[in-house]
UniProtKB/TrEMBL annotation:
Domain TonB-dependent receptor-like beta-barrel, chain residue ranges per copy: 185-584
Similarity comment: family membership: Belongs to the TonB-dependent receptor family.
InterPro entries: Beta-barrel_TonB, Beta-barrel_TonB_sf, Plug_dom, Plug_dom_sf, TonB-dep_rcpt-like, TonB_box_CS
Cited Pfam families: Plug, TonB_dep_Rec_b-barrel
This protein's UniProt keywords: Cell outer membrane, Ion transport, Membrane, Receptor, Signal, TonB box, Transmembrane, Transmembrane beta strand, Transport
Name under which the protein is recorded: TonB-dependent receptor
Motif TonB box: where in chain: 30-36
Domain of life according to the entry: Bacteria
SUPFAM superfamilies on file: Porins
């Protein structure tokens, strides 16, 4: 749960009127919620943060949230096919299960794989995305080793607004969405419904096990809503719901049966936030998420399997102002339930209780953050802590430094899966240190960050399993190093907005000396846009170095460069048109060995909003 987002933190909704700043980078006046679990100006943050605003999401023409994340600094993705396929997101070289994912403060993800269902999160619902780099276990608990990604859905603001969009593109892609939102008389509301469908392309390439040259499409239907009411000044109650149903085809050999997955993502939360006194705000939230995945490989019962993760969390958060400082006290009770149709060993529950405290001080040019947390669960007691310092030199220059510890809880698969999991597996542990320089002169913004995250008790999979010589198993053995430098810049030259980032990283398994699988040592992103009256046009360039598809570094994945172009036209104040061309050079590349990626493709969308 996050401290309730005030009007200060509410970003513009996707009303499809392109009036936001052109940059996805965080500016000094941007309000960020995730970094310290309460709304703060980016200028007052020590944590390295990026915010993706509504405009970039609207013009992305993307098929999934992961496509948008892939264009941000410090992030790489891997996917087993098209936008509906299973997707992993790597943050600063960390594993996909070392990143916490939140939907409006509700934690989502599978307790068996440890990863979030990125392919099921609907784009039509999103207002903005906050990415916080580095360990945040003291604030969000287990698994926040590489960072936290929080997706915020639309919120009502001002008079009633109705928006609608229709889109079409390559691979018979079709998309439609509509939103009704607004506020008045103490009531805020926003409701969105969306639909996406595509015939897709083959999810595998020749050479893959189960290769089938047919098209593998997907269909995603979603609905979500938020409702809050200010009962009295200082007392707010609210509720939110999200439902997304995804049907995605995949290859499982030649044949007439429609092999596919069916996945549902559901979240719900209710909260009450009260100003107990002039300097004390208390928030209580109950949140639930459901991640259900069914696989269908043939028409008989033997070809069907289903696994479901249910997470329920009760959080009590208190923010106490002590002069210019803020003390936060947090209690969390989280229960994870797993049900599997194929393994009774996985059908079990896990409870985690946590207590945390965080202190933020702002004194003149000095910034200070301190936090500590204690988690208790079946995998034992874990204590984590973090400390950060920042100094404002004036004239837009700021320096930051921080240290922090973190851990990742073993997944249910790593603990209990028959013939694979070991109940003796311990949590992975991380120890991070980083430093940064940030310069913001309005038209010019520069960021430089260095980080070094040492991981111990890494859980790896081995075939055959040590000690038995047969099968495979997960066990603690490895140490890893996630070290790197990120440079980011944005400026405006004449009428052209420019943005770019460079990542040099060394994600290394220190036990073997090998590069961690599917992560490059360098990648970069560049973008430029300009406007001619009501017309805006821009380009994006994504570059990635060589990666490896296996832990032994025997199967390389070649580097690649992707060029995207887009144009938007504000036809009237309420009507806009977007045309986008992705992978202009028709680059053939792989994010995972023998899995397909899209060649040159286009997408066009008409958007209408009335107030």
């Amino acid at each position: 749960m996050n401290f309730p987002v005030t009007r200060l933190a509410a970003a513009c909704s996707l009303a499809f009127v392109f009036t936001l700043p052109s940059f996805a980078q965080t500016t000094a006046d941007t309000v960020v919620v995730t970094a310290n679990r309460m709304p703060q100006r980016a200028h007052d943050l020590i944590a390295d943060t990026t915010v993706i605003h509504a405009e970039e999401i609207a013009r992305s023409g993307a098929g999934s949230v992961a496509d948008i994340l892939q264009r941000q600094r410090g992030i790489e993705i891997t996917r087993n096919g098209g936008p509906g396929a299973s997707t992993d997101v790597y943050l600063r070289g960390s594993n996909a299960n070392q990143v916490v994912v939140l939907l409006d403060g509700v934690r989502v993800g599978s307790s068996t794989s440890g990863t979030a269902a990125w392919n099921a999160i609907p784009l039509s619902a999103i207002e903005r995305i906050e990415i916080v780099y580095g360990p945040l276990t003291t604030l969000y608990g287990a698994d926040a080793i590489g960072g936290v990604i929080q997706v915020f859905t639309r919120k009502g603001e001002g008079g009633p607004v109705v928006t609608a969009s229709l889109g079409a593109g390559s691979n018979a892609t079709r998309a439609a969405a509509s939103t009704v939102s607004g506020s008045g008389g103490g009531l805020r509301y926003a409701f969105t419904a969306g639909y996406e469908d595509a015939d897709g392309f083959s999810s595998t390439r020749p050479g893959a096990s189960g290769f089938n040259p047919d098209e593998d499409g997907y269909r995603r239907r979603s609905a979500n809503g938020q409702l809050s009411y200010t009962v009295t000044p200082g007392l707010e109650v609210g509720a939110q719901l999200l439902h997304s149903a995804l049907r995605a085809q995949y290859d499982s050999g030649a044949g007439s049966y429609d092999t596919h997955n069916e996945q549902e993502l559901n979240t719900a939360a209710v909260h009450a936030s009260s100003r107990v006194s002039a300097n004390w705000r208390s928030t209580l939230q109950y949140a639930a998420s459901r991640d259900q995945l069914g696989s269908f490989t043939n028409a008989t019962a033997s070809g069907r399997s289903q696994i479901e993760t249910r997470q329920d969390e009760l959080t009590w958060q208190n923010a106490i102002a002590i002069g210019p400082d803020t003390l936060q006290l947090l209690y969390s009770h989280r229960k994870e339930d797993v049900e599997s149709s194929t393994s009774r060993a996985l059908t079990r529950a896990r409870i985690t209780n946590a207590y945390a405290a965080a202190y933020s001080a702002r004194r003149g040019a000095h910034l200070l953050d301190l936090s500590a947390r204690h988690d208790r669960s079946v995998y034992g007691n874990r204590n984590t802590g973090a400390a950060g310092y920042g100094h404002d030199f004036g004239n837009g220059l700021r320096a930051t430094a921080s240290i922090g510890t973190s851990f990742r809880a073993p997944t249910f698969n790593e603990l209990y899966y028959p013939g694979y999991g070991l109940e003796t597996n311990k949590p992975e542990k991380g120890r991070n240190r980083e430093a940064g320089l940030h310069y913001d002169a309005g038209r010019v913004q520069l960021d430089a960050s260095y980080y070094r995250n040492r991981l111990t008790d890494m859980i790896v999979s081995s075939t055959p399993c040590p000690g038995t010589g047969i099968g495979s198993c997960a066990y603690n053995v490895n140490e890893a190093k996630l070290e790197g430098v990120t440079l980011a810049a944005q400026t405006r030259l004449a009428a052209i907005n420019l943005r770019g980032s460079l990542d040099w990283q060394d994600p290394t398994d220190e036990t073997t000396g090998k590069q961690l699988l599917r992560r490059s040592k360098k990648h970069a992103k560049f973008a430029a846009d300009t406007s001619f009256g009501p017309v805006k046009t821009g380009m994006e360039l994504q570059l990635s170095g060589k990666r490896f598809n296996d832990a032994a570094n025997l199967r390389p994945l070649g580097g690649y460069g992707l060029l995207n172009l887009y144009t938007s036209w504000q036809v009237t104040p309420d009507l806009s048109l977007l045309v986008r061309l992705n992978n202009v050079t028709d680059k053939q590349y792989e994010l995972a060995r023998f899995y397909g990626t899209s060649g040159r493709s286009w997408f066009a969308a008409l958007r209408y909003g009335i107030r």
